[in-house]
Amino acid sequence: MELVPFSENDAAQLCAWIPDAKANFQWGGPAFSFPLTPDQICTHIAREEVAPYLVKHHQEAVGYIELFRVSDNEYRLCRVLIASPTQRGKGLGHQLVALALEKVRVIPNVYKVSLAVFAHNTAAISCYSSLGFVVLPDHTKTRFFNGESWTLLRMERWL
Questions:
Q1: Matching CATH number, 2-115, of 3.30.230.10, 3.40.630.30, 1.10.3720.10, 3.40.50.300
Q2: What was the pLDDT predicted at 88?
Q3: How far apart, in Å, are the Cα atoms of 26 and each of 59, 74, 120?
Q4: Which of 24, 120, 133, 154 could lock 34 by a disulfide, CB 3.0 to 4.6 Å apart?
Q5: 8-17, 21-30, 44-53, 78-87: which range is least confident on average?
Q6: Going by C-beta distance under 8 Å and a sequence separation of 6 or more, which residues neighbour residue 6?
């Protein structure tokens, strides 16, 4: 598995991986509207603090992740996605996050990596915990999707 720079040419593929409004919200939170469009993606990845990556496994694009610069000392993992539901639960997410952590480790002066995850996404929480992330109980938030309340957890780890 490898992370390769994501480009505007990959935006249509990413949009195709987000099948419905619920998946869109789980992946992108309130930052994107559904249906997700290449224009939304291209506008987002043009931001200076966003470093997007396409995830390739056996030369095939299988996912996406962003490194978001929060400050000179902190990066946030955002929009983590293994595209095919049939490929989830096989350790690809663990490999993906480990590769992202390797990229952050070589950035000078960065000592903290954070992320946000919905509390009902227990598989993701388990993955992140196995890589040393811990939940910050004082940073819990609530987001609303279609009248439902979704608890958003903040997790972090030190490098």
A1: 3.40.630.30
A2: 85
A3: 26, 23, 10
A4: 24
A5: 78-87
A6: 14, 45, 52, 53, 54, 64
Listed in sequence order, the residues at least 6 apart from 88 whose beta carbon sits closer than 8 Å to its beta carbon are 82, 123
- pLDDT tens digits for range 35-48: 999 999 999 999 99
Domain ranges of the chain: 2-115
Beta strands in the chain (DSSP E): 2-5, 50-57, 60-69, 74-82, 112-118, 134-135, 141-145, 148-158
Which two structure tokens, joined as six digits, stand for 154? 């903040």
| 129, 131, 132, 135 alpha-carbon torsion, rounded to 10° | -30
- pLDDT tens readout for residues 47-89: 999 999 999 999 999 999 999 999 999 999 999 999 988 888 8
Q: Which tokens belong to 68?
A: 């978001």
Give me the pLDDT at residue 86, please.
Answer: 83
Q: Tokens representing 108?
A: 């000078």
CA distance 100 to 122: 20
User: Which residues lie below 8 Å from residue 42, measured CB to CB, with a gap of 6+?
Assistant: 8, 11
